[in-house]
Records
---
Amino acid sequence: MTPIDPSRVINITEALDSEPGLYTKVMESTAVASVYAPNQDAEDKVYAALKDLSPHMKVYRKEDIPDRFFYKHGPFVSRITCIADLGWAILQPMAPHFPAKGSAILKGYHGYDNKLTDMRGIFYATGPYFKAGSSVDHIRAIDPYNLMCNILGLEAAPNNGSLAVFEPLIAPSAGERVSSSALHLFLVLLQVSVLKTLSVIDVELFRHKAFDQHQEMNDDDDDDDDDDDDDDDDDDTVVVVVVMMMMMVMMMMMMMMVVMMMMMMVMEILLTRSIEGRAPRKVTMLRQAVQKLLPVRQNLAQQINRNFGASAVVAQKANLDPIQQLFVDKIREYRTKSVGGKLVDATPETETALRDSLANLERAYGAKGVDMTQFPTLNFTEPELVWPGLTADQKVKMYEVVEAAELADMEKQAAAEEPPKYDPWEGM
């Protein structure tokens, strides 16, 4: 933001109103004014009238707007764009006086050339990912996206931002933090694997023991005891072999997980420790290559969880975004309220739309119960909000001024479009 002096204004009203029909609309934000001309001839006249109007305002045709603004290729960009110098305000026909639009005097404005220091924002970062007391010269608004993706271990989509500008801020232990989360995941999966293996072995041994006891109870022939003992020994051998094979398979899976996770942990630590501050482009490329492996690790963890009984329903609910989850939770709270909730002064269309939304949630997320058919009391007759600082009379007066200005603008535009009347007596 930059301070504004009411005396530093550029009024483009007289230039645009010097001839009827030069423009159809002017959109402005104090620092920038966009002038829409109805045709090429009008555009040329507007450009000629504005380009030398003030030394504190730059005037561009659409194709001449600097590329660094990333603006001129938009389909709705006006043919003429005016940009004021820092601290100057552009006044236009709809608001030819300062302050514009009857608002209170503002002490500062945004929207000037983004290369100016006054237009920069403030960037703060805290946490174990960053070095204490570190700083950088400046960053662009599109750069933090790459930083956030890097912190979360996500692969950034193609963009014009840069992660290299943040290298002086990133702590050497940032890679260890990411790696420690991988190690924690590995230990959890290892624990689950061991418990599952022990439970399988215990179940198999219990089933075999119960089967032996059942056979002994039904065995009435004492002469065949020796033969039964031989059969039991054979069964014991089969069970032991099956259990051993299962344990070998589990051990192989665990070894594969250990190798994959250890490789990724080592690569992450090397990237953040040994080559920090050198060849940032190569560091970024290597880090992105490691991040491409992360989905493999995540998919492996999901598969292991499914194999060990993780609920698909829980996984589905975990994938809800916070707004959806909040909406579902709020709807489920209705079942704790008194039955017979109603909509106060709601139209049938509103009630139908709400019920349809709840039905869609029920189909999408399996939310069922009384809460899906009962509504809380929603009042659609709340008093209209009053703008802060305005009384009711002031608000009415403001609307009258706005309507009068709009009516005058419509009459002016209609007069400009009306063809000249033919007077047969003219010149006689």
---
Amino acid sequence: TRKLYSQTWDTGLRYKEGSYATQLVGSYSHSKDYNYDPRKGQYAISSSLDDSEQYNLQWGNTFKVAQGTVSAGAD
């Protein structure tokens, strides 16, 4: 049997002035993956738990130039 629990939180900021805009976005994700034999139960010695966390940060910039746009960013 498998049980999967997952949570994600996101946040961000934006700023714009004239032909320039910037954005900063951050996220956090946490998941738990339980694998076990239902006859023995979730807490048996043969059961396993994969617990993982992930952080992400993205930053992007945009400039309006003549008839187009130039963008750059980083993860």
